[in-house]
User: Fold ALP1 protein from Upupa epops.
Amino acid sequence: MGKAQKYVLLGDATYPLQDWILKPYQEDENLTQRQLQFNYRLKRAHSVIENAFLRLKARWQILLKCDDCSLELLPTLVLACCILHNICEAHDNPFNEEWLESTEPTELPKPCQPAPAAMEDSQAEQVRELMCQYFESCGEG
Assistant:
C-alpha cells in the first residue's frame, strides 16, 4: 500500500473509527463504488472471523461457561482452547455441526447504535482510505 500499517481490528458500524479499528463507511446513497466495495470486503472478512469464533466456541464449549473458573485462569484457558482448536482445524479433525446448536442461545447482545462521532479518530480515515485503495487495486474478490 506504499505506507507501513499496523494491525487493525475489524469492527462494524457500532464501533468508533480508530487507526486500529476498521469499520465500514456509513451506508447511504452517497457512497462511491470504491466505498461500497470496501464495505463488501470488510463484511466478508468480518463474517469469516465470526464463523471462526463460532466454531471455536462450539468445539470448546467450556468457553460458553467460563463463569465457573477464576479470572487468573481465564486467559490461559482461552489460549489453550485456541491452540487446540487450530490444531484440530489444521489436521482436518471432523467438526460436528450439531455443536453449533448449543452456541446460539448464549450470544450476547451487541450495541445497535453507531458510536458517537466524537469518539472517532480523525487520523483513522487515512488508514481506512489506504485500505480502500488497496482493496480497489486487488480487483474483484
Notes: Residues 67 and 74 are 9 Å apart (CA to CA). Residues 9-103+123-138 form one domain. The two ends are 18 Å apart (CA to CA).
